[in-house]
Design goal:
five-stranded antiparallel beta sheet; 2 helices; alpha+beta; elongated; single chain
């Protein structure tokens, strides 16, 4: 199937109705926010106008106070009249300061209310976007050009979020799932180089993921291949995987074969003229081609690495 090919049709009528209700609720919340802006703007404008009137009134009383003081200095006024006007001016001045502080407080309160409403609307819109994304994901289509290997065809069954409803497999590209004994868990990590052997073919790759927990004594890991569309790769194919965990220089080595089962002492047959002599050999680490020789052999020695188990009781063999 190609990218975008429909795989399964879900009954989304109920979910779509809920989504439409949320759209209406979003519009209502937007109108409520705009209504709050208009109300705050109107209230602050009214308070500004009252402050302007109070300033003008205070200026008038200041002029009246100066006039009364001037008349009193000429003897045409009275001290009581001056005190009354002065008291009236002071009271109006305090009232103006109080109204100015109320205006400042109302500004801060209006801004805070608007921010709360805007935040509520933004949170609601994020939830709405998530609902829209979920509805979009419910249109189950093939994410890539692939083969449909499983589909849930139980008509009428309930499908919850996260339920497996289909499996599509891209059989033109592969990755390797490997396992290793947990005793070697410290030798494998994401980023380690790996070689996968399929018969005589060797495919290079990199360990991309390692499970953090051991299950039944083994640790699972994944290898991403450099050539993940190699002709020999098949789904379910079992292969040998070799992971590189260290590099050693200047090492004497012999070919790897079925005789090698890990570090330790081995009894191997070494060619000596027309004879094969059994010799104890200390072997160390290995890769998929060679085994490290720690002791028991000298450079140039020829060693038999094929299966010699049928001669395990012999110490010397003659070459025909």
């Amino acid at each position: 199937m190609d990218v975008g090919t429909p795989i399964l049709k879900l009954d989304l009528q109920s979910a779509e109705t809920d989504y439409e209700k949320l759209l209406d609720e979003e519009q209502m919340k937007g109108l409520e926010l705009e209504k709050l802006r208009v109300m705050n703007r109107s209230k602050l404008s009214e308070m500004e106008m009252k402050l302007k009137v109070s300033h003008m009134e205070l200026d008038r009383k200041a002029v009246e106070l100066r006039n009364e003081r001037y008349l009193d200095s000429l003897g045409a006024g009275t001290t009581d009249k001056v005190r009354q006007v002065e008291l009236d001016y002071n009271v109006s001045q305090l009232k103006l300061k109080e109204d100015e502080q109320k205006y400042i407080n109302e500004q801060a309160l209006s801004e805070a209310d608007l921010k709360v409403k805007e935040l509520e609307l933004n949170i609601f819109r994020k939830g709405l976007a998530e609902t829209k994304r979920t509805l979009g994901d419910a249109q189950i289509r093939s994410p890539r050009k692939a083969i449909l290997t499983y589909v849930n065809n139980e008509i009428g069954s309930q499908v919850g979020q996260g339920t497996k409803v289909a499996i599509v497999s891209d059989l033109s590209h592969f990755k390797i799932e490997g396992e290793i004994a947990d005793t070697y868990g410290d030798r494998i990590a994401a980023g380690s180089k790996a070689v996968v052997k399929i018969g005589s073919d060797k495919l290079e790759g990199t360990v991309s993921d390692v499970t953090p927990l051991s299950k039944n004594g083994v640790i699972s890991f994944t290898v991403q291949l450099e050539e993940d569309n190699h002709r020999r790769l098949r789904s379910g194919l079992k292969t040998d995987v070799y992971v590189m965990n260290a590099v050693k220089d200047d090492v004497m080595r012999i070919a790897n074969s079925s005789y090698y089962v890990g570090k330790g002492e081995y009894e191997l047959f070494v060619i000596n003229g027309d004879q094969l002599l059994k010799r104890k050999v200390q072997l160390g680490d290995s890769n998929y081609e060679y085994v490290e020789v720690i002791g028991g052999l000298e450079p140039g020695d020829q060693v038999i690495v094929s299966d010699m188990s049928s001669y395990k009781d012999k110490n010397k063999l003659k070459i025909k």
